[in-house]
Amino acid sequence: MTLNMQTKIPVLVLFAPTATGKTALTLNLFGKSSPSFFKDKAEIISADSMQVYKDLNIGTAKPTLQEQSELSHHLIDCIPYDKQFTVADFVEQADWWCKDIYSRGKLPVVAGGTGFYIRSFLLGLPETPESDLELRHKLIERCSQEGKEVMYQELLTVDPESASKINPNDEYRILRALEVFYLTGKPRSQFVINTSLRENFDFITIFLERERQELFERINHRVDIMFDSGLKEEVLSLIQKGAKKEMPGMQAIGYREWFEYDYNTEQGLEKIKYNIKRNSRKYAKKQYTFMKDIPGAIHIAATDSQKMLEKVQEILKNKACAIDLNNDLSNNI
């Protein structure tokens, strides 16, 4: 398919926290073995800030190789876990993949649970100043000498709103927020955030939701499965290869907890499992805060997987004229 400057690319955006049922839904809709009208008509762009890292498989609930063979996924297993992958990197790469997927006659589907990524993709990034290398190096040097805990406390003082949205272990985002403050004299949270959808895409935005207690039970069960599937062995293998707690990938829930307790004792293992469950539940709650007030978003209860599937299919059928992928979808409905 040839794209021109006026082409408005249709994109299905599917947001839901971990353990909600995104992977099963996308496979049932678009997988090669799906009975759906939309079988093999889409490719997934992962909006998960940690599945992008190589070798982090069990702890990030990454789609299996079998699932990836059923449905193409992008932005998975791309980056070494000692490298930083920013929201700006995500938006840039997601834009590229949307154009590429659509040019090949398929529907781009941005799916994941990192609300900050999806919100930035839908609305665009705030206009913060470009990085100042000299200042950045000074902040990095201070951080290495004083520790990220001190830098985070400093951010709490000068920009408490930004600090509240940043994990205290996320050295990159802590230093970036401090950099913006010292460059401009304004907290990063004061920079204008877009409230309207970007105009170069035709977004179909769907939020999958579960009642809180049910979601928490699913999260707890998923963590139990991770341990049964070899999470400890995966993490110890990474540590033996040189993984350290300050590396970006090791700050993911499911990995950072292993640096906090002695995993060689039964008591330590129980504390690790408990904290992974607790941190996962807290993270799931937090992700919804990033997704407030998204224009045009459709909220669907995920309690009944069949009804959820039927509802999403209905929405896509109603948008078939807008999607119109080489007319294949319209002709099959």
Give a concise summary.
The chain has 14 helices and six strands. It has helices spanning 22-30, 65-70, 87-103, 115-123, 133-146, 148-158, 160-164, 171-184, 212-228, 231-240, 266-290, 305-318, 320-323, 328-331, and strands at 9-15, 42-46, 73-74, 107-112, 201-209, 298-301.
Structure description:
By secondary structure, this protein is of the alpha/beta class. Helices cover 48% and strands 10% of the residues. The chain has helices spanning 22-30, 65-70, 87-103, 115-123, 133-146, 148-158, 160-164, 171-184, 212-228, 231-240, 266-290, 305-318, 320-323, 328-331, and strands spanning 9-15, 42-46, 73-74, 107-112, 201-209, 298-301. The protein has a six-stranded parallel β-sheet with strand order 3-2-4-1-5-6, sandwiched between helices. The longest helix is centred in the last third of the chain and has 25 residues, at 266-290. It starts with 8 loop residues before the first strand and ends with a helix.
Straight-line distance between termini:
21 Å
Counting DSSP H or I runs of 4 or more residues, the number of helices is 14
Order of strands across the main sheet: 3-2-4-1-5-6
Structural class: alpha/beta
Order of H and E elements: EHEHEHEHHHHHEHHHEHHH
Radius of gyration: 21 Å
